[in-house]
Design goal:
Blueprint lengths: L9 H36 L1 H12 E6 L6 E2 L5 E13 L7 H9 L6 H13 L6 E4 L4 H9 L7 E10 L7 H4 L1 E4 L2 H9 L11 E5 H5 L1 H5 L3 E7 L5 E8 L6 E4 L3 H11 L4 E6 L6 E7 L13 H8 L9 H4 L9 H10 L8 E4 L2 E2 L8 E2 L7 E4 H6 L3 H11 L1 H8 L23 H8 L5 H8 L9 H12 L3 E3 L4 E5 L6 E3 L4 E4 L4 H14 L7 H4 L7 E7 L22 E8 L6 E7 L10
Parallel strand pairs: 2-10
Antiparallel strand pairs: 1-8, 2-3, 3-4, 3-5, 6-7, 8-9, 10-18, 11-12, 11-23, 13-16, 14-15, 17-20, 18-19, 21-22, 22-23
Length: about 600
């Protein structure tokens, strides 16, 4: 038997083994070094970050919604206030079958079809909200009933809410406006303005009126609570609290007593009234009829009430004082008279014969005066007292449209006044350039004739007319109309006045102003078109009536109110200021479809 001979090279194999062992050990060491580095990075470098995350799991931040500031009139009467109540809210993302859940919920708590409609409307508009209300202002019995059945309804909870209330409802709805549910559009706006953080936990925001324009003042500053929670998310204790700062209170320039008088005078008529203090631009009364109950919008208006308001032929949602545009009619004539005197086209002494019509040279058409047969001999004073159309037809032809536009625009007609609520429209004071741009047509002399008596292309708002009247009343001073008189700091109680802002002063000759103002006083005396209004007054006041044409009448025909549909009848207008010697109030009134200004407005 042959002996086996071992051919292995032990030194080489031992060297290879040692090399593999060294490499493996090095690899393991590198792994440990990487693991150590990762531990170091997580526990030392990132310690603060992960500590914060851990604390966030243990601590929840709950926003504390501030109380909204109050709104009152100049005498302290409350126009907007707050009260607390409980709301039943649903988190749609936590509910699989929403309709079934609503049916089961309705078996223990009353949920009306209106509640469902409002909820579904909010669901469409507010998909980013965590929770949406299904019932507002729960009773104590309803709260107890739901608490006993809480386990059956995951995703539904009772929340304490602060509600807004408007005690005067329709009377000041167009001034105060309302708050309503924050929607996606509001969220985008807040985010773009960098204000979204201050609305955490808030569900409502000002939509129109003072509530919208002074949102920053009224909303306040959101507070926060740090609450320690257990693994199940239940609150254990409050660690710290930053209280919310309530919104500031607003004291308006409105006099609610005066507002009530105006509302009663209107009755069921449609129209608007704006009264200003000519010494500072404060809005004393601001009426738009009909109004609406702004409380309906707070929780999201239901479809039934929305349809009633939105589809009403009376258009209660339309702010007539701010956005309604109407031909100014003969209330335009005082400004035409001032233009005539200031531009040297007429003197106060100049007079003309009024046969009851005016014709342009070389044109057969007759522009008729409102009084058949005319007013006889008419000077500037009489032209205003009896509201002679013929005088102004002739004057307009001599002035020309661009002189009329350039002079009268100084009184604020045809442009926004800048009042401190949003939504104001400009109206229209036409010019030749405007017509060419808008209609691609040149201006004709006949167009000027219509403009001279406040018709044709002329359109103005009641607010603009009140503003223009204020400028005459205070001898050319134009103050910014404003609705907020004072702002009260919610923390200190300190009251800050909102100063009057003089926009500009017109350089009007005192003699010319006196001539026009004297005539406006006589408008309210025997023989004037507003004699009925001035008959029993205990003080002297100035005014000018106007009739705003709604539909045109054919050449040669006379206006007959009885033959015209009520909605097509003329509007009645009136501008005035008082006392005439030292004006404390200047106003403009519009009453829709009620005939002449002297008989109604």
């Amino acid at each position: 038997m042959k002996q086996h001979i071992e051919l292995r090279n032990h030194p080489v194999e031992l060297h290879k083994f040692r090399m593999r062992l060294t490499i493996s050990a090095g690899f393991v060491l590198v792994l440990f070094l990487l693991l150590y580095a990762r531990f170091y990075f997580l526990q030392v470098v990132q310690q603060e970050h992960y500590h914060t995350l851990a604390e966030a799991n243990r601590i929840s931040i709950a926003p504390l919604v501030p109380y909204r500031g109050l709104i009152s009139d100049r005498n302290g009467r409350i126009l907007a206030q707050n009260y607390s109540a409980y709301t039943l809210e649903i988190v749609p993302s936590k509910i699989q079958d929403l309709e079934t859940t609503l049916n089961e919920l309705a078996a223990i708590i009353e949920i009306t079809p209106t509640d469902r409609q409002r909820f579904k409307k909010l669901l469409k508009e507010s998909k980013r909200f965590k929770s949406l209300p299904i019932r507002h202002r729960l009773t104590e019995i309803e709260i107890a009933t739901f608490a006993a059945n809480r386990y059956r309804f995951p995703g539904i909870e009772i929340k304490a809410q602060v509600y807004r209330q408007y005690p005067e409802k329709e009377m000041v709805s167009h001034v105060v406006g309302y708050i309503s549910r924050i929607n996606d559009k509001d969220l985008e706006q807040l985010e773009s303005n960098g204000e979204l953080h201050n609305y955490r936990g808030s569900h409502h925001i000002g939509k129109i009126g003072i509530e919208q324009s002074y949102e920053k003042q009224l909303h306040g500053i959101t507070g926060f609570e740090e609450v320690e929670t257990d693994a199940a998310g239940r609150s254990i204790r409050v660690l710290s609290r930053t209280p919310p700062t309530p919104g500031n209170n607003l004291i308006l320039t409105l006099d609610l007593g005066l507002q009530e008088v105006a509302e009663m005078a209107f009755g069921d008529r449609r129209g608007a009234l704006v009264a200003l203090d000519p010494n500072n631009g404060e809005v004393l009364s601001f009426v738009s009829k009909p109004g609406y109950d702004n409380n309906l919008f707070i929780g999201g208006i239901d479809q039934e009430n929305w349809s009633l308001l939105n589809n009403s032929i009376d258009r209660p949602l339309n702010n007539r004082a701010l956005r309604g545009v109407y031909p100014p009619g003969s209330t335009f004539k005082p400004f035409m008279a001032l233009a005539a005197l200031e531009l040297g086209k007429r003197t106060a002494e100049y007079s003309m014969s009024d046969p009851g019509y005016f014709s342009l040279p070389g044109v057969s058409r007759r522009y008729r005066d409102w009084k058949p047969g005319g007013h006889g001999r008419v000077d500037l004073h009489k032209s205003l007292v009896v509201s002679c159309d013929t005088y102004y037809y002739s004057l307009a032809n001599d002035l020309g449209i661009d002189n009329i536009h350039n002079f009268i625009s100084q009184f604020g007609l045809g442009r926004k006044t800048g009042i401190d609520i949003e939504g104001e429209v400009s109206g229209l004071l036409p010019s030749s350039a405007w017509k060419m741009k808008q209609h691609k047509q040149k201006w004709y002399a006949g167009d000027t004739i219509s403009v001279s008596i406040g018709q044709g292309y002329n359109l103005t708002t009641p607010l603009q007319l009140a503003f223009a009247t204020m400028i005459i009343a205070n001898d050319g001073k134009a103050y910014l109309p404003h609705l907020v008189k004072q702002i009260q700091n919610s923390q200190t109680g300190e009251i800050e006045d909102v100063p009057a802002k003089l926009l500009y002063s017109l350089d009007l000759k005192p003699k010319n102003l006196a001539a026009v103002k004297s005539a406006l006083v006589d408008v309210t005396r025997p023989g004037g078109t507003a004699a009925k209004a001035g008959a029993n007054a205990d003080y002297t006041f100035a005014g000018k009536t106007g009739t705003s044409q709604v539909v045109g009448i054919k050449q040669g025909e006379r206006y007959n109110e009885k033959l015209i549909n009520e909605r097509h009848r003329d509007h009645a207008m009136f501008i005035a200021y008082a006392p005439a010697e030292n004006p404390m109030i200047a106003l403009a009134i519009l009453v829709e479809n009620t005939g002449t200004g002297g008989s109604t407005a």
